[in-house]
Amino acid sequence: MTIDVGTLLADRYRLEAQIGSGGMSTVYRAFDTVLERTVAIKLMHRNLAEHSEQLERFGREARAVARLNHPHIVQVIDAGEDEDTPFIVFEHVKGETLKERVQRAGRLPVTEAVAYAIEIARALGAAHERNIVHRDVKPQNVLINEEGVAKVTDFGIARTLEEHGLTADGRVLGTTDYVSPEQAMGHDVDGQSDIYSLGIVLYEMLVGDIPFHGENQIAVAMKHVREELPDVQRLRPSIGTALAAVVDRATAKALDVRYTSTDELVADLEDVLTIEAGRRGETTGEATAVFRSLPQAQRSRANLRLGRRTVVGVALLAVVAALVVVGFLATGDNTRRGTGQAPRTPVAQGEQAIKLAQDAASDYDPPPGDQKEHPEETFRVLDADPNSSWDTEGYSGGTFGAKQGVGIYLDVGAGDRTVAATKLDLTTSTPGWGATVLAAADGSGPPATRDDPGWVEVGTLDTATEGDDVVPLSTGGKRYRYYLLWITKLPPATTGRAKVSISAMNLQRAATR
């Protein structure tokens, strides 16, 4: 049952428009005639107000949220009853829900998604400090105001940890699209449950969709209990490994693996925002404001990235890699890479790294192969993360079967952009394999088969060593667009099926003056 627009509640609040409705209440935009301001009012449905249990839960929301004063939590202003209908008065947030934003925009810019996750986590942290668990974290309960700031609302099923819940044993409250495994099973929950739900919200912001679908809410809930989330990097390859690791840990089903506090989560998210801002060379939207809230030392690291995108990722991921970058910068080479990755091997005097776009790497498995050799992983040879890699498929018997080999190639650019590369640098964790390096001029694409005369052999790697390898290239000064690492010899198999794993590939050319 709804109340007519124009009704004056408690001789003070005039209802202006209905702006939302849920299972327990209806939300109105209203005008506070005393303080002359717009507010939001949540009115409990009259048929539920007759039940003492529901009435107590509704009142508990007002008491719980009124104790919270945080810039990312919608503030409770007042509470009362009008003709036996309880209501809560909130600050009015003009804007849209995070769910509406995702539905409107699809997946969000990476830095913006991380920034919203930080703001939501900070809000939940303030609640958890008061021993208040939200228990219904979802993008529908996050409002984005006109300035782009996120504010968490609707603690309608939150409860303090000191008091006993009013729900029957085993009853699941919350939206199962975001429900934690322990909540789905009807177990007691704490702040780690909110962290799981926030991890699902972050996943949705990055991917543009929730991880699980089912015939009904129970089926979805059981998937949260039993199934692993789809790989966020596979669905959005531009996401860095550090961010993917945060999503994985936040949504871990095992509580001893999941973040134990929002402080831990926020710390990692802040590091990720620094990394992602540096990789992209900028922040946009609310990410800019959140970025400015980070400690100065952290912002300075990202500012270095904004000016020197060649050192993104490596500088934060490994000290050794950082030292390599220092040596690289000392050469005076300021060539930018789309991924911000610096070569793993030092750039020799008189040479410089070749600029590569973030999506410059592609798999190569021509007929009689199926033309797919883990294409979803190829970005990993350019993501500046030594812990991520592109792997071939596993092959038994030490051979490729009917195939001559498989490979991965680098596209140095579109149109008439071609280069005469002098070296191919690569990093592998699977020593013992061999390959040739082939090059092809610009065209509609790389030659369709290995035997196509368009491919010219320009280098050889007899036996790869673990770690870094440098393959000299002999192009005779001729410029090419595609450089293919054609793997012809597999490494010794350790488990019965052999594969090649490559974590980095870089091209060098003669320096220009």
TrEMBL record:
Keyword Nucleus: no
UniProt-listed Pfam families: Pkinase
Domain Protein kinase: 13-273
Membrane-spanning ranges: 310-330
InterPro entries given in the database record: Kinase-like_dom_sf (IPR011009), Prot_kinase_dom (IPR000719), Protein_kinase_ATP_BS (IPR017441), Ser/Thr_kinase_AS (IPR008271)
Keyword Amino-acid biosynthesis annotated: no
Keywords (A to Z) from UniProt: ATP-binding, Kinase, Membrane, Nucleotide-binding, Serine/threonine-protein kinase, Transferase, Transmembrane, Transmembrane helix
Any one GO molecular-function label of the UniProt entry: ATP binding
Gene3D superfamilies: Phosphorylase Kinase, domain 1 (3.30.200.20), Transferase(Phosphotransferase) domain 1 (1.10.510.10)
The protein's name: Unannotated protein
Record organism: freshwater metagenome
